[in-house]
């Protein structure tokens, strides 16, 4: 008999797909594949219900849709109304499992940036892609979460899993005071051993990426005042530089002198003249003045994003030092918003979770996922629990055009992400605390 050695490449190709998965894990994969159209139908239902952050009734309606998915899986679901914050509230669902098992916190949100007056309102499918308001951020993530939990139930791994879900109703525009608006999420983080965030999957050059860090997000306001005078005397003793020159000096010095790795600082709104006043929401500014009068007041609003609290504190101190070096005849005051989103630094625990996800990828025959640069991701709710629990971000679906009328989801990514999440959650939930 002729004998030969099979080349390594052919030998690898001969190994069945998902050969490293257990029988329950293969069942999860099969369940997700079998329910693909169900997931897409649910996504359409969620997207077609407007749930802009300020549409309180719409956010509540989406919460009821999600409740209808979770209760049949054995979750105890409650709605926490928070209308006193100016927002609808949050959905919290708990699934008690095996005593002593790891406690998982799943995070997502019900609201979108698209309010009822937006012309972008409906789900439109285009083959393997679909467009719609909030279709990825975060309704696609909510569907991935539900699909993964359904797969766990079908495979028998959900029964023993200790899971708490918090779906906020104001992630895109947090209610005030923020301490009340994030009270329940923070409390859930203190109870958890692992936090998994189902916002969108990041990709680079077509490759899926894992996220182990998110930067902070917070606003600042700069207000400059000066004595108005005839413009012919500008810069002269007794007149000085005027408020607008002082504001320009400050923000340009920010630009030149604050730079650090992972730090960004933007000026998003500016105005000055004889008068300059922000509206109540601090997103509009009314100014008036004449060319022959030096500026009496000037105002700027911006944001600051950092990777750690130390970087925030250091940068704020530098900003205040720059502001204090006033040009002649001017006075400047810099204040920081009190609703700053905290940072989620790339801790060793977070990196270990990404390693766990990559073991799932390897067992599924998928490429390993690198760690996304946090400069390429905005702030998010998981940051509120980052100081208390290890976390991983980006378990939702892949998309393009988030926060625009071209927000488009990659439909096959829903299934890919649901399989990853179901297997990862099942493995984590089976571990002892």
Automatic annotation (TrEMBL):
One Gene Ontology term of the molecular function aspect: hydrolase activity
InterPro entries: ArgE/DapE_CS (IPR001261), Peptidase_M20 (IPR002933), Peptidase_M20_dimer (IPR011650), Peptidase_M20A (IPR050072)
SUPFAM superfamilies the UniProt entry points to: Zn-dependent exopeptidases
Signal peptide range in chain numbering: 1-19
Domain Peptidase M20 dimerisation: start-end pairs: 212-329
Superkingdom of the source species: Bacteria
UniProt key word RNA-binding: no
Keywords noted in UniProt: Hydrolase, Signal, Zinc
Protein name (record): M20 family peptidase
Species whose genome carries this gene: Sphingomonas ginkgonis
Source lineage: Bacteria, Pseudomonadati, Pseudomonadota, Alphaproteobacteria, Sphingomonadales
């Amino acid at each position: 008999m002729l004998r030969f050695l099979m080349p390594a490449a052919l030998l690898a190709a001969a190994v069945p797909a998902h050969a490293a998965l257990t029988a329950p894990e293969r069942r999860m994969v099969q369940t997700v594949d079998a329910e693909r159209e169900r997931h897409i139908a649910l996504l359409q239902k969620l997207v077609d219900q407007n749930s802009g952050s300020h549409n309180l009734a719409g956010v509540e309606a989406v919460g009821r849709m999600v409740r209808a998915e979770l209760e049949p899986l054995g979750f105890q679901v409650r709605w926490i109304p928070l209308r006193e914050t100016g927002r609808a509230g949050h959905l919290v669902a708990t699934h008690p499992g095996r005593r002593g098992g790891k406690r998982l916190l799943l995070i997502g949100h019900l609201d979108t940036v698209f309010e009822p007056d937006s012309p972008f309102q409906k789900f439109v499918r285009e083959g393997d892609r679909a467009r719609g308001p909030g279709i990825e951020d975060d309704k696609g993530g909510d569907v991935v979460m539900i699909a993964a939990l359904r797969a766990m139930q079908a495979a028998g791994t959900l029964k023993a899993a200790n899971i708490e879900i918090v779906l906020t109703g104001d992630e895109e525009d947090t209610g005030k005071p923020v301490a009340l608006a994030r009270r329940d999420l923070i409390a859930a983080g203190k109870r958890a051993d692992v936090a998994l965030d189902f916002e969108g999957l990041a990709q680079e050059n077509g490759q899926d990426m894992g996220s182990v860090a998110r930067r902070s997000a917070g606003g600042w306001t700069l207000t400059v005042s000066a004595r108005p005078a005839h413009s012919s005397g500008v810069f002269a003793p007794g007149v000085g530089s005027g408020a607008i020159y002082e504001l320009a000096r400050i923000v340009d010095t920010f630009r030149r002198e604050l730079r650090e790795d992972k730090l960004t600082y933007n000026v998003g709104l500016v105005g000055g003249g004889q008068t300059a006043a922000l509206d109540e929401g601090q997103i509009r500014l009314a100014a008036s003045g004449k060319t022959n009068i030096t500026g009496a007041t000037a105002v700027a609003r911006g944001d600051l994003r950092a990777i750690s609290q130390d970087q925030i504190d250091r940068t704020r101190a530098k900003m205040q030092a720059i502001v204090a070096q006033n040009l002649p005849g001017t006075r400047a005051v810099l204040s920081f918003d009190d609703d700053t989103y905290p940072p989620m630094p790339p801790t060793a625990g977070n990196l270990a979770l990404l390693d766990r996800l990559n073991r799932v990828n390897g067992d599924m025959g998928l490429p390993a996922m690198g760690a996304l640069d946090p400069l390429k991701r905005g702030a998010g709710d998981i940051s509120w629990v980052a100081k208390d629990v290890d976390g991983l971000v980006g378990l939702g679906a892949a998309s393009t055009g988030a926060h625009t009328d071209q927000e488009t989801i990659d439909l096959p990514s829903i299934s890919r992400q649901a399989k990853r999440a179901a297997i990862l959650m099942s493995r984590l939930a089976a571990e002892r605390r």
